[in-house]
Amino acid sequence: MDAVFTGKVLSENFRDIDEDRSAWFYRVSVSQIFKGPAQKEITVDTEDDSNRFPLEVGSEYLLFAYRWHGRLEIEDCGNSALLSDAAKPIQEIQSIATARDGEIEGWLAPETDGVDLSGIHVAIRRGSRIFAAITDQDGSFHFRAPAGRYKVDFSNREYYLNAGDVFWYNPEGFRLHVGESAALQLVSVRHPKK
Predict the structure, then answer these.
(1) Residue 141, strand partner residues
(2) CA nearest to 33, candidates 23, 41, 25
(3) What is the pLDDT of residues 45-81, one digit of tens each?
């Protein structure tokens, strides 16, 4: 995330980004900045697609935005929420200041429907050290880890990297910072049981 802050939505504007995409742009009066530019007002946008996170003028929010093509974008996949519903994420953000490590989390997507994604062993390396996790019933995993450079170990052949996916954290090599959560997506090779 490039900006995390609370604020009140002052205005909204729907316009084209380019000939194929449109977005809602929101001007927000900033109340508290946890990460990002120290500004009194920040403009964020959410593209007009299935990941859209619509805001209401006059309402207050906790917003997690990332820089995308020179804009700060918000989406429905994350912890952005109405301020009245954001007590737990705000508490977690404030605890980051005292953190000594980070978190690596992710999920395995199925190649086809009807696949049991639980119990898959995921290995992630930091130098010669291996951090291991086992997926839950949804194919998700997470664990705490010290800051450093990591890469996913694909040697067990239970998952692979879909080259067509776009990642913020490249499974083939990424840096985890203190207080950060690195999110990864892999694809399971499992198929439905017959």
Answers:
(1) 106
(2) 41
(3) 998 888 889 999 999 999 999 888 788 999 887 789 9
User: Are the C-beta atoms of 41 and 11 separated by less than 8 Å?
Assistant: no
Distance of CA 132 to the CA centre of its chain: 21
Round to whole Å and give the CA distance between 38 and 57.
22
Please report which helix (H) or strand (E) contains residue 132, including its range: strand 129-134
SS3 state of residue 167: coil
Residue 18, pLDDT score: 86
Q: Torsions phi, psi of 146, nearest 5?
A: -70, 155
- Taking the CA of residue 111 as centre, how many other CA atoms within 13 Å lie in the half-sphere pointing to its CB? 10
What's the CA dihedral at 176, 182, 186, 190 to 10 degrees?
100
Rg (CA), the chain: 19
Nearest to 140 by CA among 167, 168, 108: 108
Residue 1 CA to residue 181 CA, distance in Å, equals 10
What is the pTM (predicted TM-score) of this model?
0.55
Question: Can you name the residues that pair with 41 across neighbouring β-strands?
Answer: 29
**What domains lie within the chain, and their CATH numbers?**
3-96 (2.40.50.120), 102-188 (2.60.40.10)
